[in-house]
Design brief:
By secondary structure, this protein is mostly helical. The chain is built from 4 helices and no strands. The longest helix has 64 residues, at 49-112. It is elongated and about 100 Å long.
């Protein structure tokens, strides 16, 4: 006798059958259940050394791939946030440019009540030239302090081969 679908027990959502994955993948943040692999023997002594090394190598490879995927996902989120912030800052810079432009025009118009309009425009231009020169000198001195080589990273990476060989690192 066949049981109609309406009378069959519902599948347990907390204990899905082996190999089951939802259609859209797992929601972000939820752990992915491990895929069932060959049932390990109860006693490790029954496993050959080659199998143990193979298992460790496979697990290490899986761990590294998962960590790289996680890092990639985190970087993608940070890049998205940075792009949105950069767009907002660019919009603010454009708005600030217009504020300065209209303040300069207002200063020019105000000074033209006291002096000839041509001289007032020249005076406003000289003020902006002084501001530009001061910003240029400040920016150039800051850029001269930049060191493009990540010195601490280079030093740390130079110690990796020693660590892999089993030495403590550092200099002899």
């Amino acid at each position: 006798m066949t049981v109609p679908p309406s009378h069959r027990p519902a599948a347990d959502p907390y204990n899905p059958p082996p190999g089951y994955a939802p259609a859209g993948g797992y929601p972000q943040g939820e752990p992915v259940p491990p895929t069932p692999s060959a049932v390990p023997p109860e006693d490790v002594g029954e496993v050959s050394l080659g199998d143990l090394v193979g298992n460790v190598t496979r697990d290490l490879s899986t761990l590294i791939r998962q960590e790289l995927s996680l890092a990639q996902a985190e970087l993608k989120q940070e890049v998205t946030k940075t792009a949105k912030g950069g767009g907002a800052m660019a919009g603010a810079a454009v708005a600030a440019f217009f504020v300065l432009m209209f303040l300069s025009i207002a200063l020019w118009a105000g000074l033209s009540n006291v002096m000839d309009a041509g001289w007032a425009g020249l005076l406003v231009a000289v003020i902006w030239a002084v501001i530009a020169a001061a910003l240029f000198v400040t920016g150039r001195s800051k850029l001269r302090q930049v060191r493009p080589t990540p010195e601490r990273t280079v030093e740390t990476l130079s110690q990796v081969p020693d660590a892999l060989k089993g030495s403590r690192g550092g200099h002899a």
